[in-house]
Amino acid sequence: MHGLIEQLTGAGVAVTDGAWGTQLQDRGLETGACPDGWNLQHPERVEEVARAYVEAGSDVILTNTFGANRFLLARHGLEEKTAEINRAGVEISRRAAGGRARVFASIGPSGIMLMMGDVSPEQLQEAFAEQARALAEAGADAIVVETMSDPAEARLAVAAAKETGLPVVGCMVFDSGKDHDRTMMGTTPEQAAEALTAAGADCIGSNCGQGIEGFVGICRRLRAATDRPIWIKANAGLPKVIGGRTVFSQTPEKFAASVPDLVQAGAAFIGGCCGTTPEFIKAVKEALVP
Ligand SMILES: [Zn+2]
User: Fold this and answer.
1) Mean pLDDT, to the nearest integer, of 13-26?
2) Which residues have CB under 8 Å from 7's CB, separation 6+?
3) Residue 226 · residue 197 · CB < 8 Å
4) pTM for this structure?
5) CA–CA separation, 163 vs 44, rounded Å?
6) Which tens digits make up the pLDDT trace of 110-166?
7) Nearest to 98 by CA among 65, 58, 136
8) Spatial strand order in the sheet of 60-61
9) CA distance 227 to 198
């Protein structure tokens, strides 16, 4: 096991952070705007989100770089700032952490459908490598490849991240199938664990796509399919659209009530995804106190 991962999970479950997107929206990020661009435009608001998670007790915080790959940034005319936006994202989280939390830098999907053939696998891997290099140069402790639906894309992103020499977490989103145990591409937890382990991921996980109750079974299946530590970040229940806004209505208490089941199922890292807030992280932390 990678030394840092061992250090974080050796004494029990490590707590990660909660959502960033919904937190940035609460601070004025408009629908359709580029969240990652805020690292340059509104670094103080991004740092406020990161700091709130550190203060809530996160052992690990991520970075506001989920969509900071060249392809997604091009949609906002920001592709020439790819390295700068990623570096700024790590610098913001490191400032907020102040040595109290580790910074795991986020890499999300590219927005490219490989099977459409517009971009070659080599070009896609190079775009992830460009992002990963900037994250590593800025001092990230690890890289998290997250919210992946396509195992082929996830493999390329993990392989690109591994080139930095940092530990890499590989996560997929299970939001499809009648039991919510498949990715949009039909991938099962067993297939995901196999693909991500083969790509060299140091931790295997799942984030987003459903509420925490659904993650207990996913976690157990991932645990059985790989020898790597398991990383889980669940949503605050299923979203409802109210007045044109997506609202997640689960309470921190209800969320934290599933934490013992997740620990039992083998989770080594636990945190939140869409709709979760620093209050959720506080509640998770309290649920883990023996
Ligand atoms: Zn999410």
Assistant:
1) 95
2) none
3) yes
4) 0.97
5) 31
6) 999 888 888 999 999 999 999 999 999 999 999 999 999 999 999 999 999 999 999
7) 58
8) 14-15, 267-272, 230-235, 203-211, 168-172, 142-148, 102-107, 60-61
9) 12
pLDDT of residue 2: 87
Q: Provide the residue type at 240 as one letter.
A: K
Burial class (CB in 10 A: 0-12, 13-18, 19+), 250: buried
Q: Quickly count: other Cβ atoms within 10 Å of residue 47's Cβ.
A: 17
Distance 41 CA to ligand 1 centre (A): 23
Q: How many CB atoms lie within 10 A of CB 54?
A: 21
Distance 235 CA to ligand 1 centre (A): 6
According to DSSP, the residues that pair with 92 across neighbouring strands are none
DSSP state of 229: -
Distance 82 CA to ligand 1 centre (A): 22
Q: Which of 149, 156, 103, 147 is nearest to 128 (CA)?
A: 156
H and E: helices and strands count for the chain: 13, 10
Ligand 1 mean position, distance from CA 207 (Å): 6
**Alpha carbon of 119 to ligand 1 centroid (Å):** 26
Cα–Cα dist 9/15, whole Å: 9
